[in-house]
Amino acid sequence: MNKPVAPPAPAERRPTDWQTPAMQRRIRRRYAAERRFRLLGLAAVFLSAAFLLYLLATMIGQGASGFTETRIALPLDLRGRVVVNPARLNGAGADLALAGAGLENAVDAAANAAYPRQGGATLLSDGAWLRVRDAIKRDPALLRTPTTIDVPVASAIDMAYKDDGDAASEAAVAALRPHLSRELNRGFFAGSDATDPTRAGIWGALKGSLLTMIVTLGLAFPIGVLSALYLEEYAPRNRWTDLIEVSINNLAAVPSIIFGLLGLAVFLGTFHMPRSAAVVGGLTLALMTMPVIVIAGRNAITAVPPSIRDAARALGASPIQVVFHHVLPLALPGILTGTIIGMARALGETAPLLMIGMRAFIAAPPGKLTDPATVLPVQIFLWSDEVQKGFVEKTSAAIIVLLVVLLAMNGVAIYLRNRFETRW
Amino acid sequence: MNHIAPKMTATGVNVFYGRKQAIRDVSIDVPREDVTAFIGPSGCGKSTFLRTLNRMNDTIPGARVEGDVRMDGEDIYARSMDVVQLRARVGMVFQKPNPFPKSIFENVAYGPRIHGLARSKADLTQIVERSLTRAGLWNEVKDRLSESGTALSGGQQQRLCIARAIAVDPEVILMDEPCSALDPIATAKIEELIHELRGRYAIVIVTHNMQQAARVSQRTAFFHLGQLVEYGDTSDIFTNPRQDRTKDYITGRYG
């Protein structure tokens, strides 16, 4: 070994002078840069929060009245006008029996008699007589005794009562004010699309969205998770898997309308599946959501520490046991979060569904997957296109419903992440 | 030399990571009832060689093993060898304690459960208790078996990992620097535990710490630059090394 060598003499040490003007200026500049950056960040946060608040305030301001309807007190005396065999009022034939007995005309006549100068039957919503019909079904005695029923008014009157109507309707409302009242619009949560805004409801679109999401989730989740697991845990690293990885990343960035064209060509063109159906919408959105789930899944799986895999393998666990006993449970919170974010995106998607015909006027909620259906964002798009003033508040109300659903989904994602996340 | 047949024999083993050769022509016998220590400077290939004994290198992409490794005369690299079964027979304890993020009970019960070693719930409980007792952890954890294994201290976690390894009743236990992440007191406990386990299992321990090798092992192998430099009884290696490289290393010239 070599002999120890004396270290070179240290250079003369001169203490740093922190008080020179140049040094002071440098320090001041550093603090100023710090403050500037903090203010900039704060401004950015405030700006985005302000945009969000403005959006919410506008939507709630315009949409809240969409959840209510104006009703008018209608004195009704149906004795002699509507004659129905009481036996037919029970069971399935009741609707048909009452319609056949001329109930609609009788209701119109009652309005003409009660409010002749304000417009009579034109004051009533198209659906007013249906309210009377339902009341009679609940209480057949109404056919034999004079009574007063609150029924929904026509859209123009409804708007005027909500301080947003035309001059003629405003005048009518001024005269009728003591007879008018404002109630929660239950029909909005139970009905489907309609040409009369007072009869339009969101349930059809909401149900269409739910059915579509079920198909999307049922397809995209298992395929996405299995792909992610295979690519991370089994696939060899070579040019082919690199190619697949690049393709999946690209697929996640493809504009959604292109998936719509693909769905149109493949599901409708080649397989002749029904147009406007929730199943086709679900399939199309599944194509779009799958890459998102694969990417989120792969990230969650790579985040599982290799030491856990080693521990399981060293105990003699087979590859499938390593995956299902250790890797998947630990990666699941991340996979679920990614899935729900992907689903939320699919729920808000309009463009691809327009391509496969889900923009049709659908007046009844879909009963099964192959029934014609529409979804929430498409319904919003359709209503925003309507000329009638009553649809403005319905559009905003539908947007509120969509936002609430999205918020709920994101809430579930956060809950799942906090609930199942393992820390080590 | 031992007249009893060795537990494992390796002959002419070469290991490659891609184009890089990590192990050059190593031949070694692992005795049946003794503790064997692998010592050597960082990167000398002692951990790599350890991982050839239970085929854990298979899981590293690009790793390739040549040569002949036998356990009780059976070629463990034969095509007919069931790797999953092999790893149940050759347990392993890692450098960093790696308990599963599950309860203490589940950590130990996992191995017996996947191999169907317990016939009943009571049987399983008994295996868990016996393994934890042998690992010297039972008295410390018996009241909190349902707590997470990751909540234990580092030394306790490592003993839990040893308990987990012996719960499947392996024939060989490989320990890859089991004390390098532990404080001296925890290290002393693990060494004590290795003494207790000696004779019941063939134990191979990789260590950086020469004092540790001298304390716990009966046989010592010195690796340098991927080669086996010297292998013999621990007392001989430390008091009377035959090779200059061994002598330089154990006297602290390099390492």
UniProtKB/TrEMBL annotation, chain A:
The cellular location(s) given in this protein's UniProt record come to:
Cell inner membrane; Cell membrane
What is the species listed in this Swiss-Prot or TrEMBL entry? Sphingomonas endophytica
Q: Which UniProt keywords apply?
A: Cell membrane, Membrane, Transmembrane, Transmembrane helix, Transport
Q: What is this protein called?
A: Phosphate transport system permease protein PstA
* Family membership: Belongs to the binding-protein-dependent transport system permease family. CysTW subfamily.
Q: Which GO terms describe its biological process?
A: phosphate ion transmembrane transport
Q: Which Gene3D superfamilies match?
A: MetI-like
Q: Where is this region: Disordered?
A: 1-20
One of this protein's Pfam families, by short name?
Answer: DUF3333
The primary location reported for this protein is membrane
> Which intervals carry biased composition (Pro residues)?
1-10
The segment(s) forming the ABC transmembrane type-1 domain are: 206-413
Superkingdom classification of source: Bacteria
Gene Ontology molecular functions: phosphate transmembrane transporter activity
Q: Which residues cross the membrane?
A: 37-57, 210-231, 251-271, 277-301, 322-344, 397-416
InterPro entries, alphabetized = DUF3333, MetI-like, MetI-like_sf, Phosphate_PstA
Q: Identify the PROSITE patterns for this entry.
A: ABC_TM1
The membrane topology noted for this protein in its Swiss-Prot or TrEMBL record is:
Multi-pass membrane protein
User: What is any one of the record's Gene Ontology cellular component terms?
Assistant: plasma membrane
UniProtKB/TrEMBL annotation, chain B:
| CDD domains (alphabetical) | ABC_PstB_phosphate_transporter
Q: Read off the SUPFAM superfamilies from this record.
A: P-loop containing nucleoside triphosphate hydrolases
* Membrane-related topology note: Peripheral membrane protein
Cellular compartments annotated: Cell inner membrane
Q: Which GO terms describe its molecular function?
A: ATP binding; ATP hydrolysis activity; phosphate transmembrane transporter activity
Has keyword Transport?
A: yes
Coiled-coil ranges from the UniProt annotation: none
> Could you tell me the superkingdom of the organism this chain comes from?
Bacteria
Query: Mainly resides where?
Result: membrane
- Could you tell me the keywords of this UniProt record? ATP-binding, Cell membrane, Membrane, Nucleotide-binding, Phosphate transport, Translocase, Transport
Among its keywords, does the record have ATP-binding?
yes
**A GO-annotated cellular component:** plasma membrane
Q: By its UniProt entry, which PROSITE patterns does this protein fall under? A: ABC_TRANSPORTER_1, ABC_TRANSPORTER_2
Q: Which GO terms describe its biological process?
A: phosphate ion transmembrane transport
Report the residue ranges that make up the ABC transporter domain in this protein: 8-250
Role description: Part of the ABC transporter complex PstSACB involved in phosphate import. Responsible for energy coupling to the transport system.
Q: Which PANTHER family does the UniProt record give?
A: ABC TRANSPORTER I FAMILY MEMBER 17 (PTHR43423)
Cite the NCBIfam families for this sequence.
3a0107s01c2 (TIGR00972)
Q: What is this protein called?
A: Phosphate ABC transporter ATP-binding protein
Give the originating organism. Answer: Sphingomonas endophytica
